[in-house]
Design brief:
Elements lengths: L2 E5 L2 E4 L4 E8 L7 E7 L5 E7 L6 E3 L7 E6 L4 E6 L8 E8 L9 E4 L3 E6 L1
Parallel strand pairs: 2-11
Antiparallel strand pairs: 1-3, 3-8, 4-5, 4-9, 5-6, 7-8, 9-10, 9-11
Length: about 120
């Protein structure tokens, strides 16, 4: 009964910011590496960001240029992704994931949310 539910997606204009949230239940939150992935229309799933179990280590996809920040709140069993200076190419379905490695490889993650859609207009 692991549940991971993303929220916060929507339609924004280029240059604006958005914060995504992922609330989890049914798992030992701090036992997992947490990550965000995204999948744009017609493309494969791309690793966006990963955070370590203690919340101090972070890694990002190269294409993000430091615009995104991943964070977690262990007390709330929640994961966040702050997205700044959004671009149309950031348009995608965004998924949170829990897994066993500090990784941006989707194969390393066992649990997934249903996704939240982000659309960035020009």
């Amino acid at each position: 009964q692991v549940q991971m539910v993303e929220s916060g997606g929507g339609l924004v204009q280029a240059g604006e910011s958005l914060r995504l949230s992922c609330t989890t239940s049914g798992l030992n939150f701090d036992d997992y590496y947490m990550a965000w992935f995204r999948q744009a229309p017609g493309k494969g799933r791309e690793g966006v960001a990963c955070i370590s179990r203690a919340g101090r280590g972070r890694r990002y996809g190269d294409s993000l240029e430091g615009r995104f920040t991943i964070s977690k709140d262990s007390a709330k069993n929640a994961l966040y992704l702050e997205m700044n200076s959004l671009k149309p190419e950031d348009t995608a379905m965004y998924y949170c994931a829990a897994g066993g490695r500090f990784s941006l490889d989707e194969g390393d993650f066992s649990y997934w949310g249903q996704g939240t859609k982000v659309t960035v207009s020009s």
